[in-house]
Design a protein that fits this description.
Elements: E1 6-10, E2 13-25, E3 32-42, E4 50-55, E5 60-62, E6 69-72, E7 78-81, H1 85-92, E8 107-109, H2 112-119
C-alpha cells in the first residue's frame, strides 16, 4: 500500500512529506539494519525530493517502538518522533543545498542522526 503524503507549510513554502521504515542489507547478524527514511517534496516538484536517512547504529535505535521514532543514546537519551510536523519543519530548515527547482533525482542525506543531534545543541 502506498503511503499518503502529508502536507506542511514551512516559512511560507508548501511541502509534502512521509516517513517510512526500511530494512537495509548489512554484513553480519541479523543481516539487515533498521533505517527510517524521511522524504520531502516541495509542492509542485515531484522529481527532486530530499531524502534523509536515519540509520540504526550503536547508541541509536530507529523504528522502535513504532515507525518514525529515533532514539539517541550516549549520556542522555533523546527521543525524536519523525511523525511530528514541528520536528519535520525544523529538519526542512536544515536542508541547505537542496534545490528541487533544478533536481531531477533525489537529494540524499545520510547524516539524519547527526542533524537530529545538532537540533538539540
Amino acid at each position: 500500500m502506498k503511503q499518503k503524503l502529508r502536507k506542511i507549510v514551512v516559512d511560507g513554502t508548501s511541502y509534502r512529506w512521509r516517513v517510512r521504515h526500511v530494512h537495509e542489507p548489512k554484513v553480519g547478524p541479523p543481516g539487515y539494519r533498521c533505517t527510517e527514511v524521511l522524504t520531502v517534496f516541495r509542492e509542485g516538484h515531484p522529481r527532486g525530493p530530499a531524502r534523509v536517512r536515519f540509520v540504526a547504529s550503536e547508541g541509536v535505535l530507529v523504528g522502535y517502538p513504532r515507525s518514525g521514532v529515533v532514539e539517541l543514546g550516549r549520556g542522555d537519551w533523546r527521543v525524536f518522533n519523525l511523525n511530528r510536523p514541528g520536528l519535520i519543519a525544523r529538519l526542512i530548515r536544515t536542508f541547505e543545498g537542496w534545490n528541487p527547482d533544478t533536481r531531477r533525482s533525489p537529494w540524499v542525506v545520510d547524516d539524519g542522526v547527526e542533524r537530529l543531534r545538532a537540533l538539540v545543541v
